[in-house]
Amino acid sequence: MTTTVEMPLWALVLLIAFAAVTFASHFLFPSVRWFFRKRMERLVARLNTRLTRPIEPFKLARRYDMIQRLIYDPDIGRAITDHAASEGIPENVAFEHARRYAREIVPAFSVWTYFSFAARLARWLSRSFYSIRVINLDGERIEKLDTEATVVLVMNHRSNMDYVLLTYLAAPRGALSYAVGEWARVWPLSRLIRALGAYFIRRRDGNPLYREILAKYIYLATRAGVTQAVFPEGGLSQTGRLSAPKLGILKYIVEAHDPDGRDVIFLPVALNYDHVLEDTTLLAAARKSERRFRVPLRSVLAGVLKVIRMGQAGRRRRYGYAGVSFGQPLSLSGFGGDVQALADEMMRRIAAEIPVLPVPVIAHLLLSEGAMDRVALELRMKKLVAGIDRATVYWSRDNAGLAVEQALTLLQQRNLIRMEGETIIPAEREMPLLRYYAASVEHLFRSCSTESSDFSAPARS
Fold first, then answer.
1. What angle do CA 57, 62, 66 make, to 5 degrees?
2. Residue 36 in 3-state DSSP?
3. Alpha carbon of 246 to those of 103, 154, 230, 412: distances in Å?
4. Which pLDDT tens digit goes with each residue over 359-386?
5. Among 197, 253, 261, 455, which is 20 to 30 Å from 432 by CA?
6. Which helix (H) or strand (E) holds 2?
């Protein structure tokens, strides 16, 4: 036992390394995990006392446990067997496919990341880029929603800033769970998005096994009361108009609803911007009839540097207003229609609540009536918005002149108009961009063009 043993230095280092890893994995890591788990539980308990909709235990479950729960579910087991038979592969291979899909879908929600980092970052970004107008928020009505119900925010999709803006606005009330497309499945963005509680979806994957796992995850989240945010259009609007709704996620949520259990309440949310950050990229993709498009990394980095140099005041002048409007909630328990009827009703409610901002209105007037002087433009704006529900108009009757002034400055900076004295003339080369912004509100006006949105505004209750 006391005999000296000689060994090479590299073998000694390797032996010490293995010993350290074994010690850490069996003694240190469990203790550290337990320590941080207890700290997190205390943090969540304090946080839930301030939130209107407390964080559900489902969101706090370990990601590994949720993946195991999914792939060992009896319904998923039958889907794995069917997948193996249809593809002619062994069941253990099909099982690994299911595991990969589950790992791809299931988020890894972090309370600290969401509330201490992402919510603050979203607040800074939103308030730095835009002057935000929450036009008709009835906080008392929202807070009176059944606290046991699953709340689903249903929104139009104008910009990737939608995620940021809604995270900022919703953070004081609770944590949102987004369905995010393939564009975000790049490292390190994917890690951050998972930590925010978002789950990835393949919008064009018809694989029955994948769809079954996605449906089961949404089923579990809905039954557990997780507050969700859904974009039924399925992607960014490339024309400025509302697109026809896709039924995928809404269908899964409706199928998860238990008539005798937890209610599901859909809350329509309408968003609009004076300046959509991706507008020229979206128009270029529309000209090529491409639903998928990539923004060159060089352009992104150049834009970020330009924005940083601009400063907060400069960004607000550059990007104008962002408007958010909340519609009348819809309880699934009291709704007698099918999924298609539900989707159409939600899109009608969103269409009725689209915020009326200065740039879209001015773009609509310049396209429909041509060049006009500043005084005439202000009078036409007042007359135009007088015919719609003023709950969606961000400016009051007394400050329409200021709204016009700020919008004209924004349009001039982007070379969408030119001024000849007091006459405002739309730039011929930028007509597609003006049409893009006008399309977001033209369905609200009684004298809308024949190209207006297919979604008619319902009567407000």
1. 85
2. helix
3. 24, 12, 11, 37
4. 999 999 999 888 888 888 888 888 888 7
5. 455
6. none
Six token digits for residue 459: 């009567």
Q: How far apart are the first and last CA of the chain?
A: 89
Q: Which residue has the higher pLDDT, 211 or 143?
A: 211
Distances (CA, A) of 189 to 183, 202, 204, 279: 10, 17, 21, 22
Tell me if 327 sits within 8 A of 267, measured CB to CB.
yes
In terms of phi and psi (left: phi > 0; alpha: psi -120 to 50; beta: otherwise), the region of 152 is beta
Rounded CA separation 348/457 (Å): 6
pLDDT of residue 134: 87
pTM for the structure as a whole:
0.83
Residues 6+ apart with CB under 8 A from 123: 168, 171
The Cα-based distances of 353 to 121, 151, 267 in angstroms read 27, 19, 12
**φ and ψ at 446, to 5 degrees?**
-65, -35
| Class of residue 336 by CB neighbours under 10 A (exposed 0-12, middle 13-18, buried 19+) | exposed
